[in-house]
Amino acid sequence: MKTTNVKAFGTKAADAPLNEMTIDRREVTPKDLEIAILYCGVCHSDLHFAKNDWGMTSYPVVPGHEIVGRVTQVGSEISRYKVGDVVAVGCLVDSCRTCNSCEQDLEQYCLNGWTGTYGGYDKHLDQPTHGGYSQKIVVDEYFVLKVPANLDLAAVAPLLCAGITTWSPLRHWNVSKGSKVAVVGLGGLGHMAIKFAKALGAEVTLFSRSTNKEKDALDLGADAVVISTDATQMASVLGKFDVIIDTVPYIHDVNPYVNTLAISGTLVLVGYLGPIDPFLNSVPMIMGRRSVAASLIGGIAETQEMLDFCGENNIVSEIEMIKMQDINEAYERMLKSDVRYRFVIDMASLK
Known about the structure:
Blueprint: E1 3-10, E2 19-26, E3 32-41, H1 44-50, E4 67-74, E5 86-89, E6 92-94, H2 100-103, E7 115-116, E8 121-122, E9 127-128, E10 136-140, E11 145-146, H3 153-156, H4 162-172, E12 180-184, H5 188-199, E13 203-208, H6 214-220, E14 224-227, H7 231-235, E15 241-246, H8 255-258, E16 261-269, H9 283-288, E17 291-294, H10 300-313, E18 319-323, H11 327-335, E19 342-346
Parallel strand pairs: 12-13, 12-15, 13-14, 15-16, 16-17, 18-19
Antiparallel strand pairs: 1-2, 3-4, 3-10, 3-19, 4-5, 5-11, 6-7, 8-9
Helix pairs in contact: 4-5
């Protein structure tokens, strides 16, 4: 298959910074769209993958799976999109589409393995996929999403990962008017969880380890803030919450939060990947039919549902725009939680 050379930013080793490089994009097949990338959000997963923190990275790697762009070419069998349309691409660019999960619009749980926007396998080129830190991308029409016209395009980008990662569990656990929802951690994921839960009609509480996030949380729509290091405050919410969205990306003790679940309540891990430590105490779970669960992103239909909901409710991410050349500094700042709340790359800086 013919390919096109495209400028990108990526890395060739775990201990190397991201630098400009050239990658190959496949020619447009009958079912593909070519998309000029306008904005790309910067996700913690990008950093983890670039640094091989999860032990699964093949190099070179070009991160980025929060993509907003404009269609520049359409395949011969495309009818849903046309040149000039503004579209989005998230964490998925392919799946088997035939397994039980895919048939339920749960491509993120494809039983035969879904294809990530980066670090996956491009069956057309027989090589790894590369992500949105690049000038353009070629994607199967099925995995392309429509962007509501009324939204700030740059601020839409993080919805494609941070947004859907929090939207999916809120929908799965039936959060609606009158639900009592808590969010652990106020960052890229946490601030979206607050916005979504509030827009769905829930009473929303932020759990935070310090008081310096209180004003931001209330401004984002939270009804209350509970300081998780304050025993008195934690005691005041025992047995309260129907759903807790835990967005903390590092190992931490979830037991205190389990105790704040209502009967049949569920704590959902969306930020941390790995073993739970210290041990998870089953006593409050058994005595209250409480659950600790976890959730990935959402499928394509659910992601489109989220974008449509955002359009109807004028919801976008809180962002800080950067140039592509500033990505290494942005990674360092992310490690220090020095961003409010998501970096977005202006891809016009990659010329």
